[in-house]
Here is the input.
Amino acid sequence: MDSYHKKKERLYNTIENLTKKDIIVAFSGGVDSSLLLKLVSEKAKNQKVRVYAVTVQTKLHPVGDLEIAKKVAAETGTIHKILQVDELDEAGISDNPVNRCYLCKKYIFTQLVDYAKTLDITTIVEGTNADDLKVYRPGIQAIRELNVNSPLADSDFTKEDVRKMAKEYKITVADRPSTPCMATRFPYNTKLSYDAMRQIEKGEIYIRELGFYNVRIRLHKDIARIEVDKSDINRLMEQSEVVIHYLKELGFTYITIDLDGFRSGSMDYKLTDNPKD
Here is the structure.
């Protein structure tokens, strides 16, 4: 495996080649796309090209993500565009099919490609990293089909590399936990509900504000299964009374703590031996 220095050099070269003309960065406000936007905007200054940070505002992501994206985009000085979509109705994923991620990404990135055409832009980049290629991520196939570039993955940048470089650039979201789509909180082949997603989001925010880093609430009918980092389970147990009270106030019936701890993509275990959301 190449050293971090070698991968950085490859990433810089890739970004330089991609910023010879106007470019769109698919921008969520997470650490991956934030690092990518920073690198692209820095290179673009020298190339004198326009950079568009395009955030697709979906109802499947936490509401607060958009405000974070606005803040980080402003820090880079790029043009920030927000596209509104309703993928539950428009992407055919309301029943949470196993290929949900593919259908959703295909729909969302088609909107990006169509928007790029209105600007006469042919280059779009997005923040998939090398770790994402090792796990169940059917959406990557859709990204490839639409000829969208993934500079981090192409440069073998792992999530650890991304966070390290983001800290070097003093990007404000360098330590921000991943915030995957809210559909990952539901078993496959079950009806997705925006109301239930907002209910889960409020519960996760509450637990996170108690001092927990990684938090997921997975909903199995009337059972809310809480995942926190394994090292935090005892601490969560100590605060279980207030957590149970809050979650029941939100409308959850049964509250459980997953003794396996936080696992990114735990709903994917029946699909792959190495899941990730």
Notes: The first strand starts at residue 23 and ends at 26. The beta strands are 23-26, 51-57, 79-84, 123-125, 215-220, 223-228, 254-257. Residues 273-277 have pLDDT under 50 and may be disordered. Residues 100-118 form the longest helix (19 residues).
